Amino acid sequence: MGMTEKQGGSDVRANTTQARHDGRDAWGERYTLVGHKWFFSAPMCDAFLVLAQTPAGLTCLFLPRVLPDGTLNAIRIQRLKDKLGNKANASSEVEFTGASAWLVGEEGRGVQQILEMGTLTRLDCALGTAGLMRQSVSLALHHTSQRAAFGKKLVEQPLMKNVLADLALESEAATALALRLARAIDRQDDPFEALMRRVLTPVAKFWICKRGSHLAQEAMECLGGNGYVEEGGEGVMARIYREMPLNSIWEGAGNIMALDLLRALRHGGKGGTIAEALAAELATARGANPVFDRFAARLPERFDAAVDESEGRRLAQDIALAVQASLLRRHAPDFVFEAFCASRLGGDWGQAFGTLPSRCDVDSIIARAMPH
Ligand SMILES: Cc1cc2nc3c(=O)[nH]c(=O)nc-3n(C[C@H](O)[C@H](O)[C@H](O)COP(=O)(O)OP(=O)(O)OC[C@H]3O[C@@H](n4cnc5c(N)ncnc54)[C@H](O)[C@@H]3O)c2cc1C
User: Fold this and answer.
1) Among 9, 56, 122, 207, which is 20 to 30 Å from 131 by CA?
2) Cα–Cα distance between 208 and 201 in angstroms, integer?
3) d(CA 262, CA 206)
4) 45 alpha carbon to ligand 1 midpoint, in Å?
5) Which residues have C-beta atoms less than 6 Å from ligand 1?
6) Which residues are 24's β-sheet partners?
């Protein structure tokens, strides 16, 4: 995908790359592109979807690397970026010096067109982060099950148990939410699931990606100094840590997801409203825990306040937490659901991992998360 230019990534309307109509052939309406892209990942791909300005506005175009006659298209790679992580994915800066590209969809409707792909890549970010979170927790559990300090295995030390259980809860909740979004995307002919897709795409992308970086840092600490070192088996922890923030930045950074949630709530949704759909989703866990009931009951009144942009992140976070709790009620044992509600919804929690209240059944949570 080639969207981001120097002057705008979130606000792609600022794109300046020009597409001039150049006739019609077997591939459809052909255009000539002149301009640049500041981020252009995986430039070795056979083809790209790019945005460029036509007289009708921002338009989506299919840009092959090699033209039908076998010659290279006029895509000039200026340089590859030197990034914090994500090294295996080359990200380039490019210029188009009269490149040929073909119209996708309608002229002037490029953003809507490319966002169809954007919804799926946002799901990728949520799923990928949930996967990295699970890998981090597995590595932390594996290490602490074998390393001893002060006369015991680390996994047997009460404070380490609290950390591991807290990480395991976060990871399971992330997995549940990411897979819930995947289910909604799989069932788009169901009107209820279409509403869930609309609301959960920004919510899951925002919240899971935000939590991923924090979780990776704490899981790294479980490995002690070796977690911070790039070499050896433990080196994978450092790589995960460097990768995590990226899923939060690309495909719509945190604020952009929060603003997208507010837009979804304002526009409601066809064939029922998003507020009603969320209420029905959360009703599946109603009555199971008073903390959850209170938390879920307070959400709808906040949807009306969705005009206040500065509330966007809080609302995205709280919808995520409520949906995660309802999913854990359905798909996890009670000790997971209860600990999640007490800490994440009830406020009986600190501001770092490892601060679960002592009444939580940390042994059972750890046993459930332990890799076999
Ligand atoms: C490794 C990597 C690979 C990438 N690969 C590609 C690629 O292949 N193709 C591609 O098109 N792009 C790619 N990107 C670009 C990426 O999608 C953008 O960087 C991202 O969308 C943010 O755009 P920006 O960098 O211009 O930041 P900006 O749009 O300037 O945003 C900066 C910050 O401001 C916030 N912000 C923006 N608007 C508002 C607002 N109205 N209210 C509040 N806050 C706001 C954003 O949330 C963000 O935190 C890649 C980025 C990275 C890091």
Assistant:
1) 9
2) 11
3) 13
4) 21
5) 1-4, 8-11, 39-41, 83, 86, 91, 246, 249-250, 253-256
6) 29
